[in-house]
């Protein structure tokens, strides 16, 4: 097994003192490939494999796609495969984004309000899906995953204890419109009894293209 995956992440920021505002930009890339364990054979795998990964952005943060890993990203079909496997790790991904943060105090950890926007693409193409006919098309889906916007308010209540509140929106791109209704290897709809399937819309249990949102609040204690 020959591993040839790679990744890079670039960040930059600029602080405007008179406004207490920080501007930042980022670019990231992680190579992708077909599912490595679909068949047992010697081959070269070009997808990036992370170790103990938890990356959600440094100067430009992602709450939805990188942070929560909420979205499913189908991998290319293998010969004879009728259901897709998916990728949720930091792999098969390209993104760029920018942020603006307000830091009103000398200690930037005391209070901060930041707004981030990121655009995401897949590295490798996956087959498009015809949701009406229930078959895969002989063409590739768009690689554009979509756009994420989020905002985070963070306040350091006491030493080592911070309180935060998040809001995030994800606007699906052409990729999710092209694969809407695609079944996965762990497809819930196919596991239902035939009598139950007739009462349920299969699109409710499969990948869709609706706008998604997340609301989150909590605290962080470091010791």
Written overview of the protein:
The protein is mostly beta strands and 223 residues long. Helices cover 8% and strands 43% of the residues. It contains four helices and 13 strands. It has helices spanning 64-68, 174-178, 188-191, 194-197, and strands spanning 2-3, 7-16, 21-30, 44-45, 73-74, 86-87, 93-102, 111-121, 127-130, 135-140, 144-158, 161-172, 212-221. The strands form four sheets. It has a seven-stranded antiparallel sheet. It has a two-stranded parallel ribbon with strand order 1-4. Strand 11 and strand 12 (161-172) form a beta hairpin. The radius of gyration is 20 Å and the shape is globular. The model has no long low-confidence stretch (mean pLDDT 86).
Question: How do the strands and helices of this protein lay out in sequence?
Answer:
Blueprint: E1 2-3, E2 7-16, E3 21-30, E4 44-45, H1 64-68, E5 73-74, E6 86-87, E7 93-102, E8 111-121, E9 127-130, E10 135-140, E11 144-158, E12 161-172, H2 174-178, H3 188-191, H4 194-197, E13 212-221
Parallel strand pairs: 1-4
Antiparallel strand pairs: 2-3, 3-7, 5-6, 7-8, 8-11, 9-10, 11-12, 12-13
Which features characterize this protein?
223 residues; mainly beta; seven-stranded antiparallel beta sheet; two-stranded parallel ribbon; 8% helix; 43% strand; globular
């Amino acid at each position: 097994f020959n591993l040839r995956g790679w990744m890079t992440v670039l960040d930059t920021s600029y602080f405007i003192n008179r406004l207490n505002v920080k501007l930042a930009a980022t670019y990231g890339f992680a190579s992708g490939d077909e599912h490595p364990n679909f068949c047992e054979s010697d081959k070269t795998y070009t997808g990036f494999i992370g170790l103990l990964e938890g990356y959600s952005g440094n100067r430009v943060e992602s709450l939805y796609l990188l942070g929560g890993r909420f979205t499913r990203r189908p991998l290319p079909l293998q010969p004879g495969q009728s259901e897709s496997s998916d990728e949720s790790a930091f792999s098969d991904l390209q993104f760029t984004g920018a942020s603006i943060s307000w830091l009103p105090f000398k200690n930037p950890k005391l209070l901060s309000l930041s707004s981030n926007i990121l655009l995401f693409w897949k590295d490798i193409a996956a087959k498009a899906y015809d949701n009406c006919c229930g078959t895969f098309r002989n063409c590739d889906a768009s690689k554009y995953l979509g756009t994420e916007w989020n905002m985070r308010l963070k306040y350091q209540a006491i030493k080592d204890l911070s309180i935060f509140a998040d809001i995030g929106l994800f606007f699906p791109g052409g990729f999710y419109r092209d694969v809407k209704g695609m079944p996965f290897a762990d497809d819930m709809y196919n596991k239902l009894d035939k009598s139950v399937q007739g009462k349920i819309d299969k699109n409710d249990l499969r990948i869709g293209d609706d706008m998604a949102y997340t609301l989150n609040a909590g605290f962080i204690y470091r010791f």
